[in-house]
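Record 1 of the preview.
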Amino acid sequence: GLLVTALWWVSGGLGFLPEDPRTLEPAYLATNSRRMESLSTVAPLAYALDWLLMFSDQSTTLTLGIASVAGIALGAAVMALSQGSFRWEGFGNLGDLGLHLAGAVCMGVGGIVAMGCTIGQGITGVSTLSLGSFIALAAMLAGAWLGLRYQEWRLDRA
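->
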């Protein structure tokens, strides 16, 4: 919660420019949308891939979202390595791989359709009391519940 609040403050307070010299309109710096942003991972991950592909292009800039996605990955790696809990994992069989790929597709499509993931809509969006975020969060919870019931059914059947 504190991180979400801090990122709202950084993008909306520190990053606010009352009059952009190029457009003479108010602008929010260091965000891809040019509006206030907080913690999210779906769109910033796409922006990060775009930035990595075209980092020499002057129109692409390193933004708050791209930096937070990199921070999540690097922070997780540092913690796992420092605690000695890092390990490589694989799939048990082809069926396990298929379930993981199907889940990845569902999460990717869902994140795009909902215009955010569990962090972007479920935490950051709900912090603004957005009705759409509450609907998206309810759909995510229902999907998780259905997924768990499916896995339970598969285990009972086996």
